[in-house]
Amino acid sequence: MPAANDALVVLEKVNKHFGDLHVLRDIDLRVDRGEVIVVIGPSGSGKSTLCRAINRLETIDSGTITVDGRPLPQEGKALAHLRADVGMVFQAFNLFAHKTILDNVTLGPIKVKGTPKAQARAEAMALLERVGVANQADKFPAQLSGGQQQRVAIARSLAMSPKVMLFDEPTSALDPEMINEVLDVMTDLAHEGMTMIVVTHEMGFARRAANRVVFMADGEIQEEADPETFFTAPTSARAKDFLSKIL
Ligand code: ADP
Ligand code: MG
């Protein structure tokens, strides 16, 4: 068991409603530094809301969320810095359409972190190299494939030097032949020690990269286990039912 101060993201008794819908129910979750968590569960179970709450894209009704020991800020500069600490990659490729690939990656460091332009460009090029799209730096997002765009989105998040990366179904919108190029980048990140919370149904990725699988249904964490145990011997009825449908 790691020491308590290894905890990077901690959720305690987190609740969230949308009107009458109780989408997060007493969520307790602790993610340690360097840990990779895969969140899995049926559509509508609250996985995206969970990610969005950690990045403060959604407010919560009760409970606490801390990142690196600090409660989530409400607004202003502190919130911008939280967003830098908590990188997020969505299902849709959220690149700025009217900016080049390079400018997409340098914008955050220049605007939020005050990184000098030349340094931001050099660091961005290194990151684009790392995700295998350095040769696309001067193009615009629409000129790239979905897999390339998603790798740029990962580079853009990494440019902010996040403490934790959230991925919300990052390969769901991709053509099948592009899924692995994105999962490979994510697997490398995991093996390099990045703390990651990944919503995905890609079990190969979970088996390769995850320390723990968290199964959600109806806004609750129903079960947590290491990937091998979860996929071969789930204990909850909901998890068994879900796995029988996707396996
Ligand atoms: P998942 O990502 O597991 O599919 P979500 O977190 O997106 O689940 O959604 C959980 C539930 O909350 C769903 O029933 C969804 O329709 C509802 N929901 C999500 N966002 C909103 C919103 N902004 N307003 C109202 N209901 C929402
Ligand atoms: Mg979702």
TrEMBL record:
Principal location: membrane
Record carries keyword rRNA processing: no
Family indicated by similarity: Belongs to the ABC transporter superfamily.
Name of the gene this protein is made from: glnQ_2
Highest taxon in the source lineage: Bacteria
Pfam families documented for this protein: ABC_tran (PF00005)
GO molecular function per UniProt: ATP binding
Organism: Demequina sediminis
Protein name: Glutamine transport ATP-binding protein GlnQ
Keyword Membrane attributed: yes
Subcellular location: Cell membrane
Keywords: Amino-acid transport, ATP-binding, Cell membrane, Membrane, Nucleotide-binding, Transport
Membrane topology reported for the UniProt record: Peripheral membrane protein
InterPro entries: AAA+_ATPase (IPR003593), ABC_ATPase_HisP-typ (IPR030679), ABC_transporter-like_ATP-bd (IPR003439), ABC_transporter-like_CS (IPR017871), MetN_ABC_transporter-like (IPR050086), P-loop_NTPase (IPR027417)
Domain ABC transporter positions: 9-243
Matching Gene3D superfamilies: P-loop containing nucleotide triphosphate hydrolases
